[in-house]
Amino acid sequence: MNKKNPSFIGAGKDMTGDEMQKQCDVETKHSVTTSNGKRVIYVDAAFVDGRYRVGMYDILKNKKTTLQLGKVIDSSSKAEKCAILLGVLYLFERSKNGIVLNDSKEAVRTIGKRHPSCDTAISWIPREINLADQVSREKPNTPKKAWRRLKSVIAVTMPELLNTKLGSSQKNTEQTVLSPCATAMVDFIEQEKGFLPATNSNFSNKIVDMLRSMGEDVKKGNVRKVRNEMVRANIITIKNSKVVRFMQE
User: Fold this and answer.
1) Phi/psi zone of residue 16: left (φ > 0), alpha (ψ -120 to 50 degrees), beta?
2) Which DSSP string do the residues of 7-31 spell out, in sequence order?
3) b/e string for 87-100 if b means 16 or more Cβ within 10 A?
4) SS3 helix, strand, coil % of the chain, rounded to 5?
5) Could you tell me the fold of the domain covering 17-162?
6) What Rg, from alpha-carbon coordinates, does the chain have?
């Protein structure tokens, strides 16, 4: 391992859902270490009070870390990748051999393919058993310099996460920051690849479920607002009365 810069990240194999689930069941399920002695670190991201936060849980030390990200991190996808990098940095700084667990398949695959060789492994787990989910929603408990340290690592390993410029085809120069419900819908779509295309009715019903789980009002206006928000952010589009992805990942 390069002591000047962490030469992460690895073991982000492009596994099938069944393979990832099997690996999760065998190795992790609330364990402090895997069978081969790797330290288990859970990480997750959440959108709270207009900003993204990342949470990290080290079971062995019972250590919970919540870090508020800078405004430059303006999407759920970026935030999940930042969460993984935080976990890797945490292990690197302590010279520990470990595995970082996250519930975003897209983030795990992207980082794994980008940095295939590594001392620290990354793996996907279902959201239901991600012990960092609640941690990511708690009040930040780290100093501002923690974000600066993570940002410096991002600048070396995945600088595109710090780029807020939109594509040349988009005239709007404002950053796209999704509401909590829209963010949750993006995460759901990433994890449930077979959900789209969906009828307008089924898509709206899923938004209702999300709003209800967050204790939000489920009136039609709010459902329409979330759907339109996702359309404006180029996440989904409507074709032939069906909701489809704007573009395939």
Assistant:
1) beta
2) ---B------HHHHHHHHHHHTTT-
3) bbbbbbeeeeebbb
4) 40, 20, 40
5) Nucleotidyltransferase; domain 5 (3.30.420)
6) 18
Max Cα separation, the chain?
A: 54
For position 132, what pLDDT does the model report? Answer: 96
Q: Give the chain's length.
A: 249
- At 4, give phi and psi (nearest 5°): -85, -40
Domain limits, the chain: 17-162, 180-245
> Amino acid identity, residue 56?
M
**What six digits make up the tokens of 134?**
């609640």
- Give per-residue pLDDT as tens, 200-230: 999 999 999 988 887 788 888 899 999 998 8
Residue type, 51: R
